[in-house]
Amino acid sequence: QQHNNMADLSIKITEDIELQGHQYGGTKELTITGINEVSRRVVTATTTDTTIISFGTAYGAGTFIEGDVRYIRITNLDASNYVLLNIEGDTSTDFTVRLDPGASYMIISSSSTGVVDYADISGSTLEDLTAIKADANSSSCDLEILVATV
After folding, report:
1. If residue 1 lies in a helix (H) or strand (E), which one and from where to where?
2. Residue 82 CA neighbour count, 13 Å, CB half
3. How many CB atoms lie within 10 A of CB 139?
4. N or C: which end of the chain has fewer CB within 10 A?
5. What is the Cα–Cα distance from 83 to 3, expressed in whole angstroms?
6. Whole-angstrom Cα distance, residue 135 to residue 52?
7. What pLDDT digit, counting tens, does each position of 116-148 carry?
8. Closest by Cα among 46, 54, 29 to 147
9. What distance in Å separates the CA atoms of residue 107 and residue 54, rounded to the nearest whole number?
10. Within 10 Å of residue 35's Cβ, how many Cβ atoms?
11. pTM (2 decimals)?
């Protein structure tokens, strides 16, 4: 599949910390080429487990082609409440992480497989991701979501 409007996605993570006169921070950079589509939105996570991103073999509302995904960032915009992110896979891959106030969770797949054969919580057989769900701990939180695909 050929696209005319491909771009590079530059990801830069900078840590800046000086402790007792010594700098321990640094910057790591990664460029992912061939990005053709970007979705950026803010959604509200409630205290009910709600699907915020789905993965499949065809595009749809909130659904991305699993093999085309290269980058996902989910940022908790709330100042005081955390959100549970449930990353779901084909069968036994499901795992949950806490996204604290102001924190971001990233999934980066610079390979050609996207989120196909991406994670496994119980062994070493990688499974496809199927969805990401969000559940706010005590009151609704806004989440910023950025997804980049080829």
Report:
1. none
2. 9
3. 11
4. N
5. 36
6. 10
7. 988 877 777 888 999 999 999 999 999 999 999
8. 54
9. 14
10. 19
11. 0.90
Query: Strands, DSSP E only, in the chain?
Result: 7-15, 18-19, 22-23, 26-35, 37-45, 50-56, 63-65, 69-76, 83-89, 95-99, 104-108, 129-136, 141-149
The β-bridge relationship of strands 18-19 and 22-23 is antiparallel
Contact 11, 71 (CB under 8 A): yes
- Both tokens assigned to 72: 């996902």
Distance CA 131, CA 119 (A): 12
CA end-to-end distance (rounded Å), the chain: 10
Q: Which amino acid is at 55?
A: F
Strand 26-35 to strand 22-23: parallel, antiparallel, or no bridges (unpaired)?
Answer: unpaired
Reduced to 3 states (helix: H, G, I; strand: E, B; else coil), residue 36 is coil
Length in residues, the chain:
150
Which conformational region is residue 139 in: left (phi greater than 0), alpha (psi within -120 to 50 degrees), or beta? Answer: beta
